[in-house]
Amino acid sequence: MHDDLISFFLDPQSPKQRQYEALRAYVLEGLPAAAVAQRFGFTEKSLYALTHDFRSGKLKFFPQRSTGPKDRRVTPYVRETICEWRKKGRSVDDIVQLLREEHIELSPSTVERILKDAGFEKLPRRTAARRGRTKKNTLIAQPSHNLDLKELEPFHEECQVAGLFLFLPYIIESGILEVLEALPLPESGVIGKKQAFLSFLALKLMGGKRLSHVRQYDHDAGLGLWAGLNKLPQPTYMGNYSCLLSAELCQQLQQQIMQRLRAWEPSLFSGQTINLDFHSIPHFGEQSEMEKVWCGARNKALKGANTFFAQDAETNVMLYANADVPRQDGSEEILHFVDYWQDIKGVVNETLVFDSRLTTYQVLAQLDEAKVKFITLRRRGKSLAKRTDALPDSSWQKVKLPIPKRKHHTFLANESEVTLKGCPKPFRQIIMKDHGRDEPTYVITNNRDLPLVEILVIYARRWRIENQLAELVDFFHLNALSSPIMVRIFFDLLLSVIASFLYRRFAQDLPRFEKHLAPELFRDFIDMPGRVRFDGKQFEVRIRKRAHTPILLGVKNLQQPIPIPWLDGRQLQIRFTL
User: Residue 576, SS3?
Assistant: First the structure.
């Protein structure tokens, strides 16, 4: 029956087994020493010596192996910590996760035994729906809703972009929330106006290209908490929300937010010049109802939105944006900005800087009549070029611009007074030649207080608004239109301006990073995963330390608890961990 096992006992292979079988045959079975020695390959003397060693205890065939400690190797501190967490209502899984964050690895069964020995009973079983999971342990697609802190249980969740919480003290201090509360923005009993706006702003601060990309952050409790929700809304809600806004409401929202931001951080609005420019956003929908606009980046006319921007030339902060600019009314958009800025400041004492194609000579006359200073270019023509060529050499002066990165620092300039068509008063004209271009450049201004060199330097800085627009396109995805509806474009554009300002303000608190752009700041400081905790009273965000963490540790706003208004004033603490 066991023929396959007989050879194991009759023909032992290992030395220990042969010694054991030889002693068993000699002692127990009583076989002669010579027969046993011959059978197992020993001499008779070796067999007698083997018997002597076994009798004296020198030879052991089955040594006892030492076993581990029978007591649980858990320190009193860990036991006390586990008991404290259970007193706060934490489940076994929660406790295991919390211990893991403290670099303590214990299995759920061990935690259960410790709690049982301490006299704790099991917690009432929660339903899968209450835990936000199905029977297969997959997350339920629950609709977004405002967080109810009275029913919110303690939790400990991952957050994909925990660095987003670094913006919270700036958003709260800026006064944006008070503006949202005062205006009739869309809201419902499920999602409030603050929560809805913060959801859009979260995507902008993370550089989301499309509203549909919110699916990437589905069921992220940390990002939901950032906006005061259980999770960020679905793309359908995000897409439909801005359809409930009017152009007038967007204008009010922009104006009041800028008033708040200017009162909060006047140093970022202290420039003496303002750059103005158009930006054409192409739309490629098959049934687009937009009019054709000239897209310089593609060097052709395409259907799209004609947008207008104003920027503080010294601080690079965007001051104004408008998406609904019909082509036939584009030349007067500068007047709308003047009215807007006058409502905010009460006076327009900055010098406006813009390209020649932005407006007409008639509008320049209106600006001059309103005592608004400007610097722009004059359009070249054949007759103007002939008159310039006829100017005597004595009328030209050598000028050097103090711009280190400029290739051609030195050139010739001619200054005179000219009267343009449709303008009753003359303007100051500065002609530049031998400056690296084939044709002369004609600068027109009504600012007679500034020296010639300073006027040229100011106009040369107009490229800053083009750099800022490039940032809005590359990181905030200004050109990623998903709708031909102007109001929705306006709302998206306004969010881009606000997000850009928050990055600019955040950079002011980062030594040696004050002039870094949003993509660099996002990569180095914001795009960091972490964990969000709620112990039933306050919130805590834990972010893993990185190379740039020491700089964040020097920001005072981030080292103290932050009361969150949209979370009933509960405090949130940001911590950096290993």
Answer: strand
